[in-house]
């Protein structure tokens, strides 16, 4: 048994060595130095996921959301809540927003451009700088301050990773935009972070057709019942190949693992993340009920 543990320990050490070297190589090639993000004006913020339960939270505790800085994601700008809540930070991670041209992308960008009458820090990966959509946003609306961050995934020894994270040179793998939003909230300097709308019950919305096509019922807090329908779960923006069941479950696993990595990083930074979602499958953070 002792020999087996020794072999496993050595194998893990060698694996982390290889991952660290590979990650450092990616940082040297991909990451841009000098990338800065805004600094927190207070100790507390709220990260808003777009899960269906966010609607209940907004209706149940309206005063709570007006007390703290808000971080929203993806297509939040198309909702009435965008102009009523006036979030301070907006995170977009999905390449579809700078490589795609769907109706959702167009509406999101247009809403940002025309509705934002307050100072908004828009945080997007450096890769998005190539997009005409984002280049023109700042020109058309001076209220929008764009901060480009390095989405360079780090894997390897924890201590080295934390140093790179703090320097904004690397990030944990963010299979979901909320993972990135929590990471950025920590680096902005917030010490108490509340997470809402992180339902993450995607597995309950999967459906396989008689032709073995995996479909997905994508629901958000701003969707009306008439908008909800099943659609093929494609692997990419321009790809017509759908995920298989085992592939999508692996993807889901990466999302939940990302939260565990973020929670450990928060502890390292002496920050605390609370999951205050009304409904949630995320189990990495302490659950919190708002009174």
How would you characterize the overall build of this protein?
The chain is of the alpha/beta class. The chain has one domain (2-203, 242-287): sialyltransferase cstii, chain A (Alpha-Beta Complex), CATH 3.90.1480. The protein contains ten helices and eleven strands. It has helices at residues 2-30, 53-60, 62-67, 80-85, 96-99, 103-115, 132-140, 158-166, 177-188, 245-268; strands at residues 44-48, 69-73, 89-91, 120-125, 144-149, 192-196, 206-208, 214-217, 230-232, 272-275, 286-287. The strands form two sheets. Strands 5-4-3-2-1-6-10-11 form an eight-stranded parallel β-sheet, with helices on both faces. A hairpin with a 5-residue loop joins β7 and β8 (214-217). α9 packs parallel to α10 (245-268). The chain is globular.
Biggest β-sheet strands, sense, barrel: 8 strands, parallel
Estimate percent helicity: 40-55%
Report the portion of residues in β strands.
15-25%
Distance between the termini: 51 Å
- CATH architecture annotation: Alpha-Beta Complex
Specify the number of helices.
10
């Amino acid at each position: 048994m002792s020999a087996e543990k020794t072999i496993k320990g050595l194998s893990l050490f060698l694996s982390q060595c290889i991952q660290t070297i590979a990650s450092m190589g990616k940082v040297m090639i991909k990451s841009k130095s000098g990338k800065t993000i805004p600094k927190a004006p207070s100790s507390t913020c709220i990260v808003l996921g777009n899960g269906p339960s966010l609607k209940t939270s907004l209706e149940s505790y309206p005063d709570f959301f007006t007390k703290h800085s808000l971080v929203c994601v993806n297509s939040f700008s198309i909702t009435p809540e965008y102009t009523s809540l006036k979030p301070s930070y907006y995170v977009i991670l999905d390449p579809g927003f700078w490589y795609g041209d769907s109706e959702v992308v167009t509406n999101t960008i247009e809403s940002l451009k025309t509705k934002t009458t307050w100072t908004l820090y828009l945080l997007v990966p450096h890769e998005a700088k190539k997009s005409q959509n984002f280049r023109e946003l700042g020109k058309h609306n001076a209220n929008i301050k764009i901060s480009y961050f390095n989405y360079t995934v780090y894997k390897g020894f924890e201590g080295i990773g934390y140093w790179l994270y703090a320097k904004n040179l690397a990030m944990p793998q963010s299979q979901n935009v909320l993972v990135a939003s929590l990471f950025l909230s920590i680096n902005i300097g917030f010490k108490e972070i509340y997470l809402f709308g992180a339902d993450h019950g995607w597995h309950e919305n999967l459906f396989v057709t008689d032709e073995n096509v995996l479909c997905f019922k994508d629901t958000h807090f701003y969707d009306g019942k008439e908008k909800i329908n099943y659609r093929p779960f494609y692997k990419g923006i321009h790809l017509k190949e759908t995920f298989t069941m085992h592939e999508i479950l692996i993807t889901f696993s990466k999302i939940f693992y990302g939260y565990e990595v973020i929670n450990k990083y928060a502890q390292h930074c002496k920050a605390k993340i609370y999951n205050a979602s009304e409904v949630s499958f995320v189990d990495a953070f302490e659950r919190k009920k708002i009174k």
